[in-house]
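Hi W., the magnesium ion complex you wanted:
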Amino acid sequence: MAKTKSQYICQTCSYKSPKWMGQCVECGEWNTFVETVIDRSSVFGGNTTKLGVAAKPYYLSTVTTGAVKRDSSGIEEFDRVLGGGFVSGQVILLAGDPGIGKSTLLTQISKSMTKFKKDVVYVCGEESPQQIRVRADRMDYPAENLIMIQDTNVEAIVGGLETLVRGGEKSDVGLIIVDSIQTLASDDLTGIAGSVGQVRFCSQILSQTAKRLGIPMILIGHVTKEGTVAGPKVLEHMVDTVLYLEGDEQHLFRILKTTKNRFGAVSEVGIFEMGDKGLREVKNPSEIFLSTKEQDVPGSCVAIIMEGYRPLLFEVQALTVNTSFGYPRRTTSGFNANRLQVLIAILEKRAGLNLSNHDVYVNIAGGFKVNEYAADLAVCLAIASALQNKPLKSFTAAFGECGLLGEIRRVSNEAGRVKEAKKLGYKNILTPDNVRFLNEAIKKAF
Ligand code: TYD
Ligand code: MG
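Structure:
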């Protein structure tokens, strides 16, 4: 019988078991077993750390930094999100819902890297090379610089990368793309591809490879619901940079956000639009988000929201209708439903609006998600406008958090938000600076 190379370890109490168990016999917790490698000889050639070799301590002041060298991806919005471009050996996790455009974005980066005469290695475990070729054709990309590795075995992939880069084959690899980490598996683990143990172990090996070869690597990870398939959350601490590609499949805009970046700020966002030839960079997003906005209709208010360092203008839409059954409905899309309940309570109590027999629907136009409390005021004004069936004054935009006392509370970067709104022609801009209470804001908005 082959030697066991892995075991299942309870993530709560470290109890070890050769088989997976639903409940830990030691601590009684459920679903805590993760498969872990115990014998790594096949990957590291038997060089496991020997006990008793002393590490050498040193003063941090003796470490020299120098400027970090950055390599452009060729796509300005993407470079900005990374903080200026790729750093050698940087491991990036690109996460997002299936079908959102992750493969499209990376194919596009490969395309723009032809400008720098750089090759890109595309490890595909998810799609066939034909499918990738079809995508490239669609984007008018002849793909002469794209080197495919079609495998799902992580040891084979690492071997392939090593031979390609070190084996003297003539190629200048500027980026390695792994599509997707959930399809890869190691021989050392018995769990299926996509299980927490496999995802974690494969990423660890790939990330060591990227560092060893000094080539940036992007791992694609699908955002998944909890279950047997591991989502990107288990990887976040293992990579240098975490990017999320968000948006709504039914809509064309995509926002690329960073939630972690060891080589730059985490507040930059990139905005793209999905077209028939792939993703297009959007340089002046607010203008486009609002381009379909109807002027002067009841139930609409523009909110000024920060996406990272960038103020963006979104349209908040509200609809109120008489409740036909006893219990009024409150439905949202793109906005937190619990927060809406709170805002409705504030509107009733502090601004005297009677919503107890109205269903309230709130929607952020364009399929965006807004999590900032700064959207509160615009949501309240949209609801007030819908309820009274009266449009707000032309060119009204608003931001500010609504407190339970009906006060408008300060939020970050107020000056930047006002500037962006003015730039886009908004004149009646309601801010925590010029309105102190919700009822005062409602008066000023109409
Ligand atoms: P894809 O990049 O395969 O998504 P992911 O890798 O995140 O799962 O692409 C998703 C969708 O984008 C797919 O439904 C087709 C669409 N698409 C376009 O609209 N235009 C294009 O040019 C391309 C390549 C794809
Ligand atoms: Mg894909």
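Confidence is low (pLDDT under 50) at residues 42-46.

W.
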